[in-house]
Design brief:
The chain has helices at residues 33-40, 55-64, 68-71, 88-94, 135-142, 172-185, 210-215, 238-246, 256-286, 318-321, 353-360, 435-448; strands spanning 8-15, 43-45, 48-49, 98-103, 118-121, 193-202, 293-299, 325-328, 342-344, 348-349, 382-387, 394-399, 402-407, 412-417, 457-458, 461-462. By secondary structure, the chain is α/β, with parallel strands linked by helices. The strands form four sheets. Strands 5-4-6-1-7-8-2-9 form an eight-stranded mixed sheet, sandwiched between helices. The longest helix is centred in the middle third of the chain and has 31 residues, at 256-286. The chain is globular. The chain starts with 7 loop residues before the first strand and ends in a 25-residue tail after the last strand.
Amino acid sequence: MSSSDRPNLLLICTDHWPGLLTRMAGHPVVMTPTLSQLANNGVWYSNAYTACPSCIPARRSLMTGVTARTHGDRVFNQHLEMPSLPTMAQCFRNGGYQTYAVGKLHVYPQRNRIGFDDVILNEEGRHHLGMLGDDYEQYIADAGYAGQEFLGGQCSNDYNVCPWQLPDHCHSTNWTAQQMCRVIHRRDPGRPAMWYMSFQMPHPPLWPLQAYLDMYANVSIDPPIIGDWAGNPEKLPYMFRAYFMDGRHSIQNAPTHEIELARRAFYATLTHIDHQIRLVIGTLREEGILDQTIIAFTSDHGDMLGDHGWWAKTVMYEMSANVPLVIMPAKNDQREWLRTGRIDDRLVELRDIMPTLLDMAGLDIPSHVEGMSLAQENEREYLYGEHWENEHASRMIRSAEYKLIYYPVGNHFQLFDMKTDRRETKNLADHPKYMDIRAKLTKQLVKNMYGNDGRWINNGQLIGEPDRPTPNSSSRHFGGQRGIRFV
């Protein structure tokens, strides 16, 4: 395939978006018309996962095509530089593409372009990592609102709600889409392009535009799902008991109406992003290149939103680990595995996106890549998931029918039937009928564990470590609360 014949690529990534919160997954409330149209013109991957559900390790897998074991982070290491592997952007660039990113990268150092020709950056104001001001903050300052994003008292790691108080064009979701439209408009028409549009949202703070909050004003909001196993706090894994005690989220134990408002605001944020994606698609159409452009949409991980009492991420339940994935091929790509309107139920994960998109563009897949191309007849028997190495560690094996979750502290197992209980309400781990399934998945789990995980294994059997008493401590971090910044 010559360079002039290669398709363009628009890869869209969000932050904290659960795959279950889409029309394609059958959610009864969330409005995602744009994603639904993309899926109707492409493929919806119903079993897509992030193998390490937090921002940094997930994005390392997305951009390198490898597991956490290879890229080196399963603990959210904020100061770890990218591994010395060709990134997705670098591979497209080496293949003759112009490559540009807008939005969140979440790499270190923060201005590392990881192979892109240029990055227009929104780092969510993480000044503690050394960069005092990103491109989005500069935009806000130029508009006359320097340091005022958090005037409503919201927080990047909590779920208190206040509608956006600055002009709409200053909202990070609008800014990201507008900047991407400009980048597309300014492209070199003689070369194919790879564009990466990475939204900061729906990651808190929950500051939706009032118009989108109003869209859900008369809609009945579904409550969090609480599993049968989550009803007795004293029998929960240590990780849960420690989480409930430290009070890191003010939404924990909030009254029903406050939890409902947080979920309503979160849903409003999803629809806002969905609509802004339409503007970028419209730009591609009006530039006359929509038919020649691959569009892929995903998220680094999900958000529990109160399911089983948990908020945010890092756990292996569906709302945290299952992510949306839609790929719409260029119009002339008629491969069977990319057939229009197809629902693909293979077990896939973020490391598969890089080889898939390179394959669709007719570019070589580097030998270091551990993911599989979804444009081909590839399949895996199971997925392995992991997060943390300390007392909060958990591990997962997801097969086509079941999910095994393991907490080493207390040697605690959970087993869920993914065909009949997708929201993981009934723990089957100790049910006599499922002992053979548990044993089979445990064997796969042990086979994938590495490094200091070995302390939890003896003669091929998981022994974990002694349970711990519920800690009596609380967090004074206030979720990393921001104040007013004057520069």
